[in-house]
Amino acid sequence: MSFDLIDDSAKLSRLLDVLEREPRIALDTEFHRERTYFPRLALIQVAWGGGIAVIDPLAVDIQPITRIFGDANLIVLHAAQQDMDVLAHAVGRVPARMFDTQIAAGFLGFSTPSLASLVNAQLKIALPKGDRLTDWLRRPLTDGQLAYAASDVEHLLELHDRLCSDLSERGRLVWAEDACEELRTRKTGPGDPADAWLKQKDLRGMKPRTRGILASLAEWRERRAMASDIPPRQVLPDLALHGIAQRDPSSLGELGQARGVDDRHTRGSIGPEILEAVARGRDRRADLPASDGEELDRHLRPAITLVSAWISEVARTNDVDTVLLATRNDIVSLLRRDNDARLASGWRFDLVGLQIEDLLAGRSGLSFDGRGGLRLISAATEPLDNGV
């Protein structure tokens, strides 16, 4: 496999002149975020009908890559969610058109396959194995490392052709494209710092005052980590968050006695900042979000299990990844009659929407089919169709 290394602005400009005329471009990224708050882009790999290139964003301003993020170019990726986050942070936008081969494969009986397993299954090609622990930010990269990175896009366009052909034969290409658009338009980047506390453990067992202090501390930690571009745990470990919230300190001396706190947390400006966050938290109301089903009328809560069982059966018999068809939150949203419930429109409604309505209205029920599966039965116990 041959590829070009793009490590100066002139090479990048010439490459983009070529890519802008291409209807499809395969793309992948390499990045790290272990030592930073935001992901650090290390490489961008692209492939098109005429070649493969590896772009070094540490050697060249990568912002011009957005020239190929318009409507004229379809960007083909695999497992694109993290790539979307990385690109949004690095250049401020994501492609206007995107196709995710992992999502597409979910409509053909695959369950979140790796690129290697999907290429092997669909194209009978074994991708080279590389060092998963490669430090992509280290320079110089070896020829072997660059070749391994390039192999991630080498077969993506051929894979795209195969998947689109199979999806079209089954009448599911539009489903896959809709699911890819859902991913493309999903919010990227970090969440609201005010919600950082919800990631902590054992929240339900805490007293309201302790939970309020923890929520305030977690928000402070998140904002400081963002400002310094370091992982939150390097600002203050989780153990210290919980220890401080439990102790509720009013002085640096008391802060120093909290579990998980060491000298660096009481010196300089950080100690007073922690105490200020604790003070804010004493009066903070930190209500836990309702668990799945708690916001439903009590008589509808058993329907979550019933509908979930049927969705799993429909996904199995129709070779659709259950995660793509519906999550538990999707089911709750439908039962609440939310205006934006995903199961109430589009391909999901076409596949299971009417059947769920029949279940909820009592016009049908579930029965074992005698072969390890489920079937819908009408009030007259007549089997109803469970597929398309």
Automatic annotation (TrEMBL):
Alphabetized GO MF terms: 3'-5' exonuclease activity; nucleic acid binding; nucleotide binding
Domain HRDC: 207-288
Gene3D superfamilies reported for this sequence: HRDC domain (1.10.150.80), Ribonuclease H-like superfamily/Ribonuclease H (3.30.420.10)
Coiled coil regions in record: none
GO BP, one annotated term: nucleobase-containing compound metabolic process
Database matches in InterPro entries: 3'-5'_exonuclease_dom (IPR002562), HRDC-like_sf (IPR010997), HRDC_dom (IPR002121), HRDC_dom_sf (IPR044876), RNase_D-like (IPR051086), RNaseH-like_sf (IPR012337), RNaseH_sf (IPR036397)
One protein family per Pfam: DNA_pol_A_exo1
Annotated PANTHER family: RIBONUCLEASE D
Protein name: Unannotated protein
Native species: freshwater metagenome
